[in-house]
Automatic annotation (TrEMBL):
SUPFAM superfamilies to which the protein is assigned, alphabetical: Phosphoglucomutase, C-terminal domain, Phosphoglucomutase, first 3 domains
UniProt organism field: Streptomyces axinellae
InterPro entries on file: A-D-PHexomutase_a/b/a-I, A-D-PHexomutase_a/b/a-I/II/III, A-D-PHexomutase_a/b/a-II, A-D-PHexomutase_a/b/a-III, A-D-PHexomutase_C, A-D-PHexomutase_C_sf, Alpha-D-phosphohexomutase_SF
Protein name in the entry: Phosphomannomutase/phosphoglucomutase
Record-linked PANTHER family: PHOSPHOMANNOMUTASE
Residues covered by the Alpha-D-phosphohexomutase alpha/beta/alpha domain: 6-132, 156-255, 262-369
Cofactor: Mg(2+)
Limits of the Alpha-D-phosphohexomutase C-terminal domain: 374-448
Keywords attached to this entry: Isomerase, Magnesium, Metal-binding, Phosphoprotein
Domain of life the protein comes from: Bacteria
UniProt cross-references to CDD domains, sorted A to Z: PMM_PGM (cd03089)
Protein family (similarity comment): Belongs to the phosphohexose mutase family.
Amino acid sequence: MADLSQIVKAYDVRGVVPDQWDEALAGLFGAAFVRVTGASAIVVGHDMRPSSPGLARAFGQGAAGQGADVTEIGLCSTDQLYFASGYLGLPGAMFTASHNPARYNGIKMCRASAAPIGQDTGLGEIRTLVEEWSDAGAPVADGPQGALTQRDILRDYAEYLRDLVDLSGIRSLKVVVDAGNGMGGHTVPTVFEGLPLELDALYFELDGTFPNHEANPLDPKNLVDLQRRVRETGADIGLAFDGDADRCFVVDENGDPVPPSAITALVASRELARVPGSTVIHNLITSWSVPEVVKECGGTPVRTRVGHSFIKQEMAATGAIFGGEHSAHYYFRDFWNADTGMLAALHVLAALGGQDDTLSQLVARYDRYAASGEINSTVDDQAARAAAVKEAYAGREGVELDELDGLTVTAEDWWFNLRPSNTEPLLRLNVEARDAATVERVRDEVLALVRA
């Protein structure tokens, strides 16, 4: 029996192809997906990686073998697959490894209306079935085989997003977009078509070998080309998408990165203006500015753990209109509580184009504090090092501790969060304060304890 512990993660399947998994296993995942969801029909899409079409087709064939009809939407972004799941009312599977290197691939799965599937909501059961079937194959289902049909849903996706954000009256903007040879090169031209935007396209050629740079804008080195182009051309804004184009990063007219927390606060203010009094979700690593802005706009901020499954659960439980994470994942009630960087980008463009200030002037209202960014430390014993930090701060006057997700320590002028990685021997530190000097002092104090 196969051991899939290395490729079945908390929220998805991910590993090296063909070393860790291949089309034969993809077919078993398709069969198991249908068994666990009980679906009579599903939708399947894939990114531009060389292995993606074959894996997606094998998954679909495995699903059809269990009697489910399969709608193949072909090349798409992850949020386009979520759109298809919501629009068609079907469980879905997206073949992508997001920003990972070319030899990786994976599956993000959801139930109908983009409801997440994670380890505790079906993925564990799917893994168990695939492992059981790995030797003899999936059992033959009763009844007829399902049919595989193809459908192009890109224009439906674009029209749906543009119905949610009105850009018709904005001033003309010069926009540089770095697609990183990922799926943004597929979606952006259709979504932006006809808008008052002058598009400067960087790396729009779909190429899953990522010849120019990694499609991971969270790493500053992958923003360098975008920043240079914005400065050279005098653009109003720069946008960078990751490999599967579900996350969007923003740089201002000076080429400076805009913190995702500032984008969260900006979009929250727009959504609260549209639906006053709503709830907005933010994870515990977003800036103090996010709950401040939400309250200033008459909304209710709700703090949650890091991770899309927690955000989506809280969105559903509270009826929240919007949610944001420090990693540039943005979730919308009007998008089936799923994350879509493209919709966040449209909100930023509408906000920028609806007034005369530059982007740096606009986001200054929402970017109020100094921050360290995420700092990773490799440690031999995560629990012991975290315990040492907790002991150092427990009982200090004027300091509060909570363990919603890792350890968060909050004082009047600063806070930090220290979280263990689920997949690597790392502790991740984020610090925020009212000024940069305090950030540096707290950062150095905590790192001395972590790295002792």
